[in-house]
Amino acid sequence: MRVLGIDPGLTRCGLGVVDGRAGRASMVAVGVVRTPADAEPAQRLIFLETELGAWMDRFSPEVVAVERVFADTNVTSVMTTAHATAIALLTAGKRGIPVVFHTPTEVKAAVTGSGRADKAQVTVMVTRILKLAEAPRPADAADALALAICHLWRGAATARLEALARAGAR
């Protein structure tokens, strides 16, 4: 399975493409989209859509895994993250690619074993799991890879269990 992990953000949006299955993963690509800081918000969102679309077209993911936005005291930050999340949904939806959401705690638990891990621990484990020569930088890129790994290891299994449950209910 090929998963595109997206760590949404209007200033920096982390992207990571991973191939694999539960217990095995290999990195295909990693990067960060940086929107022009001096552009109007609408132009930044258009830029983000173009870049995300290019990644989806180039790497043909079977699913897109996005970090679920959580409430914070900084409403402005939450809103811009939500805008970037909407662009990820829109871009994948236009291509017929399913989108799944994973919470930060779920992602941390999947890659480190602890839902309370810090960013440094997540980056170390992503580097180990994917057998990378060096840690992905910046943290947004490592977070995107962690999202993809999380979906490979947890989301795919959850989807199989849900399909079995639906089949058994018939």
Automatic annotation (TrEMBL):
Subcellular location: Cytoplasm
Co-factor remark: Binds 2 Mg(2+) ion per subunit.
A GO CC term attached to the entry: Holliday junction resolvase complex
Domain of life: Bacteria
Extent of the signal sequence: none
Named cofactor requirement(s): Mg(2+)
Listed GO MF terms: crossover junction DNA endonuclease activity; DNA binding; magnesium ion binding
Catalytic activity: Endonucleolytic cleavage at a junction such as a reciprocal single-stranded crossover between two homologous DNA duplexes (Holliday junction)
Xref: CDD domains: RuvC (cd16962)
Binding sites annotated in the UniProt record for Mg(2+) 1: 7, 140
HAMAP family: RuvC
PANTHER family found in the cross-reference section: CROSSOVER JUNCTION ENDODEOXYRIBONUCLEASE RUVC (PTHR30194)
Complex formation: Homodimer which binds Holliday junction (HJ) DNA. The HJ becomes 2-fold symmetrical on binding to RuvC with unstacked arms; it has a different conformation from HJ DNA in complex with RuvA. In the full resolvosome a probable DNA-RuvA(4)-RuvB(12)-RuvC(2) complex forms which resolves the HJ.
Protein purpose: The RuvA-RuvB-RuvC complex processes Holliday junction (HJ) DNA during genetic recombination and DNA repair. Endonuclease that resolves HJ intermediates. Cleaves cruciform DNA by making single-stranded nicks across the HJ at symmetrical positions within the homologous arms, yielding a 5'-phosphate and a 3'-hydroxyl group; requires a central core of homology in the junction. The consensus cleavage sequence is 5'-(A/T)TT(C/G)-3'. Cleavage occurs on the 3'-side of the TT dinucleotide at the point of strand exchange.
Family of the protein in this entry: Belongs to the RuvC family.
Protein name: Crossover junction endodeoxyribonuclease RuvC
Species per Swiss-Prot/TrEMBL record: Knoellia aerolata DSM 18566
Gene that this polypeptide is encoded by: ruvC
